Amino acid sequence: MGCKAIPLVTTLAGFFGAAILSTAQQNFDRVEVQAQPVQGNVYMLIGAGGNVTVQTGPDGVLIVDTQFEPMAPKLLAAIRKLSDKPIRYIINTHVHPDHTGGNAAIAQAGVPPADGGGSAGGQGARVIAHENVLKVMSAPKTGKQFDFSAPKERWPTETYTNRKTIQFNGEQIELVHVERAHPPGTRSCSSVGRTSSAPGTCMPSIDTRATIPKEPLMA
Ligand SMILES: [Zn+2]
């Protein structure tokens, strides 16, 4: 059986191109972050752009995606309501700025996992993404449409190619690269994953255009 997508979707899909390119045109002042329980120790934060997954537990906090840069203080406040443990992992599903914009600020507020590999000079949370995310972010800036190059502070500190497994908070978290998923028409750098606390549930379904594979994501 394939996994079932939970409502961790962005309303931006379908017209994501123009909508996510310019944070300057958007006013985030009035955006409130709402937390919704998903299952067990997994929550979804809804704010602006892509949703954020939060997993909490005795080891700390793991989040998936960081929304637009100006949303970072609100996201941090919402995370702190769910857990006072350190943010140790940030996972990016893909490169779009409504999923990676808050990487630097949120990573800086965290601390690396026990085996290191943190951002912000090694002192911050570890940022993990598919290798294509780093390729796109670290490419020379062109200033053209769909230029998703980004400052170094936002880059992933660890990348993977096909799959990665993290043991955290007593759970196994699987990151799985999905070919030709999202962004459409570009080099795919999307991933979905799931935790053992939510069997049969993808976390997160990044955008409604993403294709969830029919075969099981977990071996
Ligand atoms: Zn996107």
- Ligands: zinc ion
CATH first level: Alpha Beta
CATH-defined topology: Metallo-beta-lactamase, Chain A
Could you tell me the strand content as a percent range? Answer: 25-35%
Secondary-structure element sequence? EHEEEEHEHHEHEEEEE
Please tell me the total number of domains.
1
**Strand order of the biggest β-sheet:** 2-3-4-5-6-7-8
- Quaternary state reads single chain
Helix/strand-derived class?
alpha/beta
Amino-to-carboxy terminus distance: 12 Å
Low-confidence stretches: 1-21, 185-219
Rounded to the nearest angstrom, the radius of gyration is 16 Å
CATH level 4 superfamily? Ribonuclease Z/Hydroxyacylglutathione hydrolase-like
| Largest β-sheet summary | 7 strands, mixed
Number of strands: 12
CATH architecture label? 4-Layer Sandwich
Q: What is the number of helical segments per DSSP (H or I, 4+ residues)?
A: 5
Average per-residue pLDDT, rounded, comes to: 78
Give the overall shape, derived from the CA principal axes: globular
Helix content: 10-25%
